[in-house]
Structures are given as C-alpha cells and as structure tokens.
Amino acid sequence: MKSSITLFAGLFVVFFAVLSCKKEDINPSPINSILGEYDVKCCSYDIGKRMKVIPKNDSVVDIRILSDYPNNLIKCNRVYKDLTIIPKRSPWLVDSVFFYIYNSSHQQVGDIRTPKAGTYFQLWGGLDSLSNTIEFISATKRKD
C-alpha cells in the first residue's frame, strides 16, 4: 500500500512539473516573422509614418498606418483589412523568403521579402477601407 501511495505522489509531482514547463509552439504561424511595426518609405504623404501588421489568424492580417505616431497609437490614416499572407520560399534566392499578399478576391496585391538584410514590404493594390481607394505602400520593418 505504501508503494502505491509513493508511486501516485511521484506521478502527481511529475504531472504538475510538466504542466509548469514553458511550452514551445511546435508549429508556429508562418507569418510570425513579418508581424509588427514598419517604417513607411513611400508614397505620397505617408512617408515617415508607422505601419503595423496585426494578425487576425494564422494567415490573415490587417494593416494599419498610424496617422499621428507616437502621439496617437489608435488613430489610423489608412486601414487594409483581411489581407491573406501566403509564404513561398524562392528556389533562386537562397537567403530570401517571399510572402505574397492577397485581397479577399484572391488577387495578389503585394509581397514581402525577407532577405538577411531586413524585411521589405510592398503593397501595390491594397484597398484602403477608410477612403475606398487603391494605394501603393513601401515599408521596411523596424529593428527595435
């Protein structure tokens, strides 16, 4: 009887020790590396503004260009909703991963390149949900 209590107590301790360990995601989202903040490099009056790529699920994101960074982190100048990000490794460029950006109509509207030098974002056909116009944006990921 005493050995069964010792065995149960040992299993109990091992079980809770495993539960308390920090868990690693064995299958992380393929778009985790491109999420975050970008500096807008082009075009029109968006130059120098901050852009955020915000995840909605494992492949769909919203993109927001903040109108008054750093004073107002909520007010947006442009918003691009429900863009699907699909990763594709390029066989020609060994050090680069490409992500293609598609709109809700399954048309490619941009791409993201991630060579060793940084992450470069281009959106050439995104429909801004605030002004209902198609815009071109070029941005570089911040290295904070």
Describe the protein in words.
The model has no long low-confidence stretch (mean pLDDT 79). The protein is elongated. The N and C termini lie far apart (59 Å). The longest helix has 19 residues, at 2-20. A hairpin with a 3-residue loop joins strand 3 and strand 4 (72-89). It has one helix at 2-20; strands at residues 36-42, 50-55, 60-68, 72-89, 97-102, 108-113, 120-127, 134-141. Helix content is 13%, strand content 47%. It is mostly beta strands and 144 residues long.
Q: What is the first-to-last residue Cα distance? A: 59 Å
Which series of helices and strands comes N to C?
HEEEEEEEE
Strand fraction equals over 45%
Give the spatial strand order of the biggest sheet: 1-2-3-4-5-6-7-8
What's the overall average pLDDT, rounded?
Answer: 79
Give the strand tally: 8
DSSP helix count? 1
Low-confidence stretches: none
Largest sheet: 8 strands, antiparallel, barrel
Helical residue percent band: 10-25%
C-alpha Rg, in Å?
22 Å
Large-scale geometry:
elongated
Label the structural class: mainly beta
Supply the key terms.
144 residues, 47% strand, 1 helix
Summarize the model shown.
By secondary structure, this protein is mainly β. The protein is 13% helix and 47% strand.
